[in-house]
Amino acid sequence: KYYPPDFDPAKIPKLKLPKDRQYVVRLMAPFNMRCKTCGEYIYKGKKFNARKETVQNEVYLGLPIFRFYIKCTRCLAEITFKTDPENTDYTMEHGATRNFQAEKLLEEEEKRMQKEREEEELNNPMKVLENRTKDSKLEMEVLENLQELKELNQRQANVDFEAMLQQYKEFEEEQKRREQE
């Protein structure tokens, strides 16, 4: 490119773009949802042309939070959701309801129980001992059950190799006798 000798880049005016500028992006639905206006199910992985904007005054550990606007495939109602970097997920804002997720609820319940147990152990040293004995008893029971299952399988699948070899020899002898006849 040719730059004339009197070219000054500072004289070029800068574009003043708004902070809440919306971009058109192509994205997939991050979870199963159901439209509130028409009841249409939108499954996870359905592709949409969406508008994306940065949410003002919301940041998580320096990460910007984005809001997405999509339209229902049947009734064209607007559905919005935004990113949730704290839980590495998305949160539904309006226009649809998120379908039930048993796995997520189970995981959250498990985390809550673990947290309660740790808090209890910190306050009460006897509880630590009780939990250890419970865990060891549970582990012993699991090992016993596993041993029982192994024994049961061995009884049911008891293979007698000597008898098999003897039977095979008899079968070969019978075949030789037939050939000779």
Automatic annotation (TrEMBL):
Main subcellular location: nucleus
Pfam entry (one): Saf4_Yju2
GO molecular function, one term: metal ion binding
Domain of life: Eukaryota
Any GO BP annotation: mRNA splicing, via spliceosome
Coiled-coil annotated spans: 99-181
Location within or outside the cell: Nucleus
InterPro entries registered for this protein in UniProt: Saf4/Yju2, Yju2
Keyword Heme tagged: no
Keywords: Coiled coil, Metal-binding, mRNA processing, mRNA splicing, Nucleus, Spliceosome, Zinc
Metal-binding in keyword set: yes
GO CC annotation terms, alphabetical: U2-type catalytic step 1 spliceosome
HAMAP family: YJU2 (MF_03226)
Name under which the protein is recorded: YJU2 factor
